[in-house]
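Bit of a strange request maybe. I'm writing a small parser for structure token strings and I need a real example to test against, not something I typed by hand. Could someone generate the tokens for this chain?
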Amino acid sequence: MTPETVRRLKINKRYEGMLCRWCGQLLLVGDDGAICGACEGVHHASCWDKQNGCNGNPMCVNRPLQQLQNVAPVEQKPPTQLNPGDSICPTCGDVVTGYCFRCQNAAEIDYTGPKQTAPEAKDALKFALIGLICFGFVFGPLAIIRGTQAKKTIAMNPRLEGEGLATAAQIIGGIEVLFYVGGILRTIIELGSGPN
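Reply from user aminoacidic:
Good idea to test on real output. This should exercise your parser:
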């Protein structure tokens, strides 16, 4: 059972004539008193309340917390002005441009600035469209590879966009490859069946 912080009572014969630990005045019978529950220091109740605790033993747990004097004010930094494209890493607080190399963190950074289409995504779509016209067996795989590279680049840099273009290039490139493979299989089957 923990002791009470303070025992409040009317001063009786036991405490009469003792000095208040705060003001140094005599305690008289009938005064409102406060007896520390930890060190048994005797105080006027008003002194205890005014000083927020005991002034008995210097090591008493009921002593009021010491107030710091002449504390220098904390210097407030002005808010950081972000340039377009910059953001603050939520882990370390550094100003970063899309990717925090210290924290290896990209997914949590909310980038709200202007975006540009990834050059790889544009190239992938060009290869896919050229493959529809001619040499699909060459440009189809190139479109798939370049589209995959574009998606990786976009995932690493929040200032880039164009994932839709990269996906379209991959799909078109896949169709071109399927047509090429289908043409080869059809030719093999026709040659295999030959004239009977």
